[in-house]
């Protein structure tokens, strides 16, 4: 994705050595994240259902394939994408910031060469790892609230989205049940 955007940017500017701007890096990371998240979302939704399943859950799944087939049969294919909108909204800052911050840190380290971290324009594995950790921390911090909303929506769907966000428990599968289930599973 990033290479395609870089190629288009170089074609537009007419400069074969042009590098992506921070805004284009943010956009490239966001696009790549949306594509990756969309491809894996149904399995992520099923994983979420299995995670909060308890003895008192409305459905008793025996595994990933059973959960997937049960959701498809009982709720339809759209149920596999419950909570996708907050995921798309959340992946934009998460992956976009992650990608942009990582690249900005790398570029800064190569140019500034602080603390002797860079030798001959080459970053060590440890330095790259530190850049990745810093970038992921920024992205996850910004995206976390949307991840919570997505997980809750995966459990009950769009119809009860208002009660999920407010936590007032008006749904037929109330928020308190989800929270109690996660406490029971952690014991």
Q: Would you give an account of this structure?
A:
The chain has 187 residues and is mostly helical. The protein has helices at 2-13, 22-52, 64-75, 84-112, 125-156, 161-166, 175-186, and strands at residues 118-119, 122-123. A two-stranded antiparallel ribbon has the order 1-2. The longest helix is centred in the last third of the chain and has 32 residues, at 125-156. The chain is elongated. The model is unreliable at 157-162 and 181-187 (pLDDT under 50).
Cα separation of the termini = 42 Å
Rg value: 21 Å
Tell me the series of helices and strands, N- to C-terminal.
Answer: HHHHEEHHH
Q: Shape from CA axes?
A: elongated
Can you summarize the main beta sheet?
Answer: 2 strands, antiparallel
- Work out the number of β strands: 2
User: Helix count, per DSSP?
Assistant: 7
Helix content estimate:
over 70%
User: Which secondary-structure class do the elements indicate?
Assistant: mainly alpha
Which residues sit in consecutive blocks of at least 5 with pLDDT less than 50? 157-162, 181-187
Mean pLDDT: 76
Question: Main sheet: which strands, in order across?
Answer: 1-2
How much strand?
under 5%
Could you provide a short overview of the structure?
This protein is mostly helical and 187 residues long. The chain has helices at 2-13, 22-52, 64-75, 84-112, 125-156, 161-166, 175-186; strands spanning 118-119, 122-123. The chain contains seven helices and two strands.
Keywords:
about 190 residues; mainly alpha; two-stranded antiparallel sheet; 7 helices; about 0% strand; elongated; disordered C terminus
């Amino acid at each position: 994705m990033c290479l395609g955007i870089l190629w288009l940017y170089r074609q537009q500017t007419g400069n074969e050595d042009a590098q992506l701007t921070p805004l284009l890096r943010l956009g490239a990371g966001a696009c790549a994240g949306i594509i990756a998240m969309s491809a894996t979302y149904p399995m992520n939704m099923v994983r979420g259902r299995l995670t909060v399943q308890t003895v008192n859950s409305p459905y008793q799944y025996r595994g990933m394939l059973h959960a997937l087939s049960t959701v498809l049969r009982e709720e339809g294919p759209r149920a596999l994408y419950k909570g996708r909108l907050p995921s798309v909204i959340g992946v934009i800052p998460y992956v976009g910031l992650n990608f942009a911050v990582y690249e900005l840190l790398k570029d800064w380290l190569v140019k500034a060469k602080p603390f002797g971290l860079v030798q001959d324009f080459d970053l060590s594995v440890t330095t790259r790892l530190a850049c990745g950790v810093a970038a992921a921390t920024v992205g996850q911090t910004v995206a976390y609230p949307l991840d919570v909303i997505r997980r809750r929506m995966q459990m009950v769907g769009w119809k009860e989205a208002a009660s999920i966000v407010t936590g007032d428990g008006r749904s037929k599968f109330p928020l308190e049940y989800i929270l109690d289930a996660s406490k029971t599973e952690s014991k």
